[in-house]
Structure formats: C-alpha cells, structure tokens
Amino acid sequence: MTKTKHLTKSDLIHLMELSKLQLNDSELLVIEKQLNETLDYFENLGDLDTSAISEATYTTSATNVFRDDSIDESRLLDQSTVFKNAKKKKNNFFIVSRII
Questions:
Q1: Which of 32, 49, 77, 93 could form a disulfide with 81 if both were Cys (CB 3.0 to 4.6 A apart)?
Q2: Domain ranges for the chain
Q3: If 0-12 CB within 10 Å is exposed, 13-18 middle and 19+ buried, where does residue 58 land?
Q4: Where on the tree of life does the source sit, at the highest rank (predicted)?
Q5: What's the pLDDT at 3?
C-alpha cells in the first residue's frame, strides 16, 4: 500500500480556517500529531489480509420488527358518529381555532 501523505501545518491551518476553529500553536501541534497518528492507523488497516473473511451486508441478524398494516373493521366509525360531538364542521372537516 502507498504511504499516506501526512498533514502539514499549512494543511491544518487551512482546515482550521474552513471549520472556523481557533487554535494556538501548541494546540495545533497536538492536533497535527493526533491526526497524523490516526492516518497512520488507517494505513495499517489497509495492510491487513482480509481475504479469508467473507463480506457481510448486516452485522446483526436484523429482521423487520414492524407488524403488517391491517384494518380492524370493528374499530371503524361512520361519519355521523365522528362528527356527532363536533362544535363546528364544514364539508366533512373539523373547524378548529387558529393556533398560529
């Protein structure tokens, strides 16, 4: 695998400006070291032999936990029952006070 280019101080200053971060020089050095160590770690991961590991689309045995939609006919109401206690209605809609 090719060697990853490390981030330079000017790269980090550019990233700081893009992300609107303000770091002093000592913080910048710490971040530079940590980011470069992280890049090195990812480079090492790329060198691992994964040929004996099968590909996986799911890491868990996820199944659909939702129930199928169905209509419970015993709970249906006709329009006269629905609007029986409505204070105001118009064209089969409830009229309510304005909220906003």
A1: 77
A2: 9-46
A3: exposed
A4: Bacteria
A5: 66
